């Protein structure tokens, strides 16, 4: 099955700090993609603040792998249809 992973706000922030560090590639690309996907889902469900999601997604400015970008592209598509 497919499961979303929800963390408390402090752990989301820690994930964001790590992704924004030089070591972000230590997290496998599929996990980086899942983090973006899960975090955006929780923003839509009003379980995570948009500001926390933006801090997490900020790391994408240095991301080179399409796999990690894909959930953000889908998030942009979702937002364009609201």
Automatic annotation (TrEMBL):
Gene Ontology CC, one term: extracellular space
Biological process terms in GO annotation: peptide catabolic process; proteolysis
Domain ERAP1-like C-terminal: 1-81
InterPro entries on file: ERAP1-like_C_dom (IPR024571), Peptidase_M1_aminopeptidases (IPR050344)
A single MF term (Gene Ontology): zinc ion binding
Pfam families found in the cross-reference section: ERAP1_C (PF11838)
Keyword Protease attributed: yes
Keywords from the named record: Aminopeptidase, Hydrolase, Protease
Superkingdom, natural source: Eukaryota
Protein family according to the UniProt entry: Belongs to the peptidase M1 family.
Protein known as: Aminopeptidase N
Organism of this sequence: Camponotus floridanus (Florida carpenter ant)
């Amino acid at each position: 099955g497919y499961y979303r992973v929800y963390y408390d706000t402090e752990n989301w922030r820690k994930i964001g700090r790590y992704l924004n560090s030089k070591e972000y590639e230590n997290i496998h690309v599929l996990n980086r993609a899942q983090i973006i996907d899960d975090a955006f889902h929780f923003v839509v469900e009003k379980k995570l603040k948009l500001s926390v999601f933006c801090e997490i997604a900020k790391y994408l400015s240095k991301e080179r792998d399409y796999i990690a970008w894909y959930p953000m592209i889908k998030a942009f598509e979702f937002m364009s249809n609201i």
